[in-house]
Design the sequence.
């Protein structure tokens, strides 16, 4: 499959702040590609550069074989953008909004009318087409938002967090629409989200982004396989290197390491730390990467019990993108 | 076409916004009604004062041309002509029985018939309404110009006839073409050097100070104030697009920045022109219906249109300036309110310009409102020509350019 999108070392800086720190990936024609990362990771900035909304500080990308900087007019005809915000005119009807965005893409007359009817069908809003957007539910607004990005029939659709603030029913509807567009029309999709379930469900491949960098990129299956059988987090009163080595040697355990503890919070401004202030001492947490989660839990708890090591907490994480992200960054996706 | 699509969409949104429509179209009319009504009580302006003013005439000549002039003024029907003697003048003016006195000097008829320069004098009272006096002067000037032309052409043709009559046949040189050329030349001379000169004097006052009708000054003032308010609407519309993300969506579409911005500012320009048309129509017909002095649009329609276009352009540029400077909704409100009302106050939109200038002098000139106000005041109220107002028009253009330049320089397309 030829690549519809090739991103080559994109960097975006705002003064001293580097929002995107050299991102590269490619998306094949007909693929649904996920960009997974927490808020502020650089997903939207990456999309903004690919769609020509903001120029990159350096690096470039090619869409459908056209350079985003040198051939932006051709690129913009191939792209469709569904922004994270409800980028609609609330006092106009859904149809008026879609007609407007269609005209911006050069559609006129009968062709415009047919395309608008088509996208209204795709998002199941034909019967509410003449309703004022402001009066719609959050989910319906999201669907009109998606329709506005589809009206010119793009080959590559960028969906930026399309399910934020949406009820479960509308969310399912959006998933179905994306899957149908990809399956029936061969539309390529770049789907950004911080909901790992969505990326797992919709995407063939995904890149995990954190702090402006891609930290993992593979098929969903391979990304999850990074964790083997899952991860177990065990809080204990004390743990030393010998304990960790013995835990790592247990059956069904791939690796046991101490989770780095965050530094204690600084003293309040204007107050020096005194001897009366007790430092915050968190108990150690051992991260156990398992080849088989259930077996690993039994073995680890048995070992700790046998060695009189007091357990303060226990968290078992099944292998998924959330636990992969946590494994790779030490942070949760929705922190 | 994409620019037009954006502009039509913005107009569609605006016309659904009742609050904005009230602010742009109804509020200025309410302000004008209140201010015109209030100011008419101070500075004149009710229509009764304009009807059939008395014009005193002192005929020191008693000749044919003097009679002709006086009859023509009577036939004009705008004034009630009353014969006076020199000794009556002061008392008649002081008691406001006549608004002005026209003195026809002795030797007027001889001068006109002999193509010699003569001078008519219009004497006004200190409280005379400058509008009425101006109009009266125009009537007298028009009749005098006709008399000058007639006299000069007749004299010229008479001279040519005399020369022809005494010359032998082979020297009959004055063909029809030559006679017509001579008539045209005389006509032009009469326009440039009128035979009858008219001077205006005010007893016991060195220099006549024109006091325009205060009630009329409210119309240009509030027109300008509220037209600039449209600029705020444009800035808010751009901010709203950025806030909801549609600006980002448009930036991702195959439309360049010029088309995008042109689409955003075109509605401002159109709305500003509609605003001016509505307010001026109200000034012309609404004030008349209210028994107040109507805005004399017919005095300088071309000039008024030119000022309207430049004013709309300046307001549009002001919108871009605000959109470029403000980063938040509060800043749009704060900056535009400060500038709109500050510039409006300085530019004579709230206090009539001729009063304001006495207090702040040339300081008013730093705002476009002043130049727009001055241009409309001069053209429509004082009856001056476009040539007298070229500086005001140029300054409006200069302000538009400055606003556009600073606004575009500061405009952030990425947020």
Sequence:
């Amino acid at each position: 499959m030829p690549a519809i999108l090739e991103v080559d070392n994109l960097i975006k800086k705002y003064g001293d702040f580097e929002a995107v720190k050299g991102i590269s990936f490619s998306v094949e024609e007909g693929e649904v590609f996920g960009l997974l990362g927490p808020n502020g990771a650089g997903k939207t900035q990456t999309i903004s550069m690919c769609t020509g909304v903001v120029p990159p500080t350096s690096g470039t990308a090619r869409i459908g074989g056209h350079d985003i900087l040198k051939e932006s007019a051709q690129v913009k005809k191939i792209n469709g953008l569904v922004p994270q915000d409800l980028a609609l005119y609330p006092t106009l009807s859904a149809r008026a909004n879609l007609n407007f965005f269609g005209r911006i893409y050069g559609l006129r007359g009968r062709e415009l009318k047919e395309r608008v009817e088509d996208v209204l069908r795709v998002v199941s809003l034909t019967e509410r087409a003449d309703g004022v957007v402001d009066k719609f539910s959050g989910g319906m607004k999201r669907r009109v938002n998606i329709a506005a990005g589809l009206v010119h029939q793009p080959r590559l659709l960028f969906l930026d967090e399309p399910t934020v603030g949406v009820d479960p029913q509308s969310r399912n509807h959006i998933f179905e629409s994306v899957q149908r567009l990809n399956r029936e029309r061969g539309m390529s999709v770049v789907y950004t989200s911080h909901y790992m379930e969505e990326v797992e469900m919709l995407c063939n491949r995904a890149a995990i982004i954190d702090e402006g960098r891609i930290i993992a990129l593979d098929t969903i299956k391979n990304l999850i396989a990074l964790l083997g059988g899952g991860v177990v987090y065990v809080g204990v009163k004390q743990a030393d290197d010998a304990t960790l080595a013995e835990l790592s040697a247990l059956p069904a355990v791939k690796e046991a390491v101490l989770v780095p503890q965050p530094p204690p919070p600084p003293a309040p401004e204007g107050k020096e730390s005194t001897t009366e202030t007790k430092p915050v001492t968190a108990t150690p947490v051992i991260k156990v990467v398992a080849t088989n989660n259930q077996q690993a839990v039994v073995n680890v708890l048995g070992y700790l019990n046998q060695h009189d090591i007091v357990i303060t907490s226990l968290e078992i994480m099944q292998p998924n993108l959330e636990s992969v992200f946590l494994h790779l960054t030490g942070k949760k996706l929705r922190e | 076409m994409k620019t037009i699509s954006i502009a039509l969409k913005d107009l569609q949104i605006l016309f659904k916004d009742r609050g904005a429509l009230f602010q742009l179209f109804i509020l200025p009319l309410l302000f004008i009604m209140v201010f015109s009504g209030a100011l008419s009580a101070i500075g004149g302006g009710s229509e009764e004062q304009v009807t059939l003013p008395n014009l005193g005439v002192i005929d020191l000549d008693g000749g044919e041309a003097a009679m002709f002039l006086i009859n023509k003024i009577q036939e004009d029907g705008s004034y009630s002509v009353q014969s006076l003697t020199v000794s009556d003048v002061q008392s008649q003016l002081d008691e406001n029985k006549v608004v002005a006195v026209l003195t026809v000097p002795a030797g007027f008829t001889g001068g006109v018939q002999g193509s010699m320069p003569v001078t008519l004098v219009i004497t006004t009272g200190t409280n005379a309404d400058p509008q009425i006096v101006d109009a009266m002067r125009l009537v007298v000037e028009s009749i005098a110009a006709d008399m000058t032309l007639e006299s000069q052409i007749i004299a010229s043709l008479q001279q040519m006839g005399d020369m022809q009559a005494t010359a032998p046949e082979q020297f009959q040189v004055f063909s029809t073409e030559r006679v017509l050329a001579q008539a045209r030349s005389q006509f032009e001379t009469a326009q440039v050097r009128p035979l009858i000169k008219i001077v205006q004097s005010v007893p016991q006052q060195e220099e006549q100070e024109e006091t325009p009708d205060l009630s009329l000054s409210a119309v240009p003032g509030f027109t300008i104030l509220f037209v600039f308010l449209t600029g705020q609407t444009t800035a808010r519309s751009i901010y709203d697009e950025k806030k909801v993300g549609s600006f980002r969506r448009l930036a991702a579409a195959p439309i360049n920045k010029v088309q995008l911005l042109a689409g955003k500012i075109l509605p401002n320009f159109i709305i500003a022109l509609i605003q001016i048309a509505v307010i001026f129509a109200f000034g012309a017909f609404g004030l008349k219906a209210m028994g107040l002095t109507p805005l004399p649009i017919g005095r300088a329609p071309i000039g008024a249109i030119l000022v309207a276009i430049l004013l709309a352009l300046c307001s549009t540029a002001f919108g871009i300036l605000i959109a470029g400077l403000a980063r938040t909704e509060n800043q749009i409100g704060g900056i535009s309110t400060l500038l709109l009302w500050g510039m409006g106050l300085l530019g004579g939109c709230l206090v009539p310009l001729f009063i304001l200038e006495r207090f702040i002098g040339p300081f008013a000139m730093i705002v476009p409102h002043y130049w727009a106000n001055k241009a409309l005041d001069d053209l429509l109220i004082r009856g001056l020509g476009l040539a007298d107002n070229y500086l005001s028009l140029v300054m409006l253009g200069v302000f538009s350019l400055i606003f556009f330049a600073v606004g575009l320089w500061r405009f952030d397309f990425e947020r």
Summary: Residues 90 and 203 of chain B are 8 Å apart (CA to CA).
